[in-house]
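$ ./design --mode recover --in tokens.txt
reading tokens...
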């Protein structure tokens, strides 16, 4: 049976495939495997909280020094952060929370004490058979004050619980990654500070009408800050300011390699933190 199978394969005239080189490494935090033939580095990491049931996701590391897209290497992403099940309800809760906590209502109405006039009692209390009134600026009168009306400077701030905020970030990052709207670059260094270069780069790579660039520090390179100064649809944000509303507002999310690592580190730390969580006790009452 085996000889007949071998003869059948030989009759197919299948060309010999090139040999694939395998190598295994061990590293503490992160390491790179250089494939000599293609000159592509695969960055593998050992997380403090490794995934238990799912495999790490891989994304290409792109460049910004040329208009044409070049694959610098492969980068591993933690599945609990970038491949979580998107919860639309949690994303919606985060959007409503972010809209309301910065909303201040300036609608203002005057009470009966603030309306002009009404200092004199309109008629005597008794004797005329009319209803009893003490002021013509009462809320019962036309032109009087407003009872229980809006007062200016009213804030609608409330705090969302930390788990809703964390899962909102993971859901949005996972949705961006699944829709191929999340890109990882080595850094934000540009060869020029001209806006036309960045516009052509975005159009060439089909990054969408609006782009959000996220770096791990507050200080972005000078060329990219000057290039994006006149572009209203391209914004730069530090990693600690990343939020659900900004990610949804922009079509494409571009993370630097350092920013992607820091996002993983912080979210995994909070997801696996037990600080302030007490053990469950069955109530005997």
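writing sequence...
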């Amino acid at each position: 049976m085996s000889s007949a199978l071998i003869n059948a394969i030989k009759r197919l005239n299948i060309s010999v495939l090139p040999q694939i080189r395998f190598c295994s490494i061990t590293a503490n935090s992160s390491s790179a495997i250089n494939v000599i033939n293609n000159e592509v580095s695969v960055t593998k990491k050992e997380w403090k909280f490794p995934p238990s049931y799912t495999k790490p996701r891989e994304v290409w590391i792109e460049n910004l020094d040329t208009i044409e897209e070049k694959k610098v290497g492969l980068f591993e992403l933690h599945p609990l952060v970038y491949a979580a099940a998107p919860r639309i309800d949690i994303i919606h809760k985060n959007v409503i929370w972010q809209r309301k906590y910065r909303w201040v209502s300036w609608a203002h109405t005057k009470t009966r004490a603030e309306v002009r006039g009404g200092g004199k009692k309109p008629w005597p209390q008794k004797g005329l058979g009319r209803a009893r009134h003490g002021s013509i600026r009462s809320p019962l009168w036309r032109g009087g004050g407003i009872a229980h009306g809006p007062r200016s400077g009213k804030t609608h701030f409330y705090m969302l619980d930390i788990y809703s905020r964390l899962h909102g970030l993971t859901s949005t990052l996972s949705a961006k990654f699944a829709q191929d709207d999340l890109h990882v670059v080595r850094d934000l260094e540009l060869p020029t500070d001209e806006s036309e270069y960045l516009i052509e780069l975005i159009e060439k790579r089909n990054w969408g009408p609006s782009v959000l660039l996220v770096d791990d520090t507050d200080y972005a390179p000078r060329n990219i800050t000057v290039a994006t100064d006149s572009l209203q649809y391209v914004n730069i944000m530090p990693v600690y300011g990343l939020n659900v509303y900004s990610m949804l507002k922009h079509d494409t999310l571009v993370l630097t390699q350092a920013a992607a690592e820091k996002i993983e580190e912080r979210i995994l730390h909070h997801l696996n933190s037990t600080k302030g969580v007490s053990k469950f006790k069955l109530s005997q009452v």
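exit 0
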